[in-house]
Amino acid sequence: MSTQVRFLTKNFGAYDTNSIGAYMNIGGFKALRKAVTMDPEDICTMLSDAKIRGRGGAEYPLGRKWSQARAVKGENKVIICNADEGETTTFKDRELIKNDPFNLIEAMIIAGFVCGATDGYIYMRAEYACYRPILLNAIRQAKNYGFLGENILGKGFDFNIHLYSGGGAYVCGEGTALIRSIEGKAGRPRMKPPFIKVSGVFARPTCLNNVESLSLVPHLLLDQDTYMNCGMGESIGTKLVSVAGNVNNPGVFEIPFGTTIRDIIYNLAGGIQHDREIQLIQFGGASGKVSDASILDTPYTYDDLRAAGVMVGSGGLLVIDKRTSVLDFLRMNQEFFSEESCGQCTPCREGNLHIKIILDKLAKGEATEQDIKTMSTIAKVMSMSSLCGLGETAQNTLQSAMKKFPEVFAIGGTKA
């Protein structure tokens, strides 16, 4: 039976998060002191050796991203920490901000050193307003102690961090929409190229990372062996997962890759309420794919989940029991995307609306076979032609459900 591990979360509850002195007493900023004595490219190599993929959902290798950011020519580079975390059922980054804010600040400074940046932005979702004072205090104290500002640790390295809160738009989790929001513009995605590593916020070279991705770096610099000894196959290390829905013990858990879905749900999350049967499990937030209980013995790794038809994504697991039908769940999920689409591109704006209409017809027993074919076509068009990741992935849930639960879409059949 698997249990939680304490690598990324080892500082949780170990110090007063209002005090930089308390953080330093448990080894805080030792990783930064070590980093500034190293060749930045060696740090990128360390991250590549650890095979860290971006923890926000895109799964882009962190070491490669930092190495590419270093190679970009230009002054006044920027590091952005994406703390928007707008995916439903995903709340792991919130725990890192709340329980270990100084580690995030230290991680951003290290990222700035490695990539050659002079400024950092933390873009935090509007609903996390109660955590703003925690981060503002951490930034202020880090500056007072000389870890931010000019000539950090006497290495001729200048770096400052700014906190920016969004307006609550889900689409601002997408990189270019997030950047436009920081710039004071409407949070809508833009076409690429130019890619943000070349021209990002305020047209400056920008490297954007998720909270969890960044937070790993200080721990790795001080204790790479522990991380490398966790995991399974190509999925090395640990992962924060947030489990929600019809479980007895919803929450955030740090697991070694390779832990089975059954262990996560029935051991860490305490099992299903009142011992009900599982209807479906959604992986990776609102834009994640779904499966039924047949996936329970699958190891939680990138490759195993992909082979099972789902993905790690943002690290969320939503467990739905038999009280909710698959169709009602899909309608609820579609309601979210119909409201959160920014409306800029036609495939996403119109596609989400018409899929919602067809799902409502299906629930009323009024849908035709042609409606089902039309819905499937719209979903495919959205995934291929939408401007940003929201439209491209909005129908992951529907498309995976059509494969896993075909009886739901059988006209005249039984709706599960």
TrEMBL record:
Coiled coil: none annotated. InterPro entries: NADH-UbQ_OxRdtase_51kDa_CS, Nuo51_FMN-bd, Nuo51_FMN-bd_sf, Nuop51_4Fe4S-bd, Nuop51_4Fe4S-bd_sf, Soluble_ligand-bd. Residues 327-372 form the NADH-ubiquinone oxidoreductase 51kDa subunit iron-sulphur binding domain. It comes from the Bacteria. GO terms for molecular function: 4 iron, 4 sulfur cluster binding; FMN binding; metal ion binding; NADH dehydrogenase (ubiquinone) activity. Keywords: 4Fe-4S, Iron, Iron-sulfur, Metal-binding. It holds the Pfam family SLBB. PANTHER family: NADH-QUINONE OXIDOREDUCTASE SUBUNIT F. Belongs to the complex I 51 kDa subunit family. This is NADH-quinone oxidoreductase subunit F. It comes from Selenomonas ruminantium.
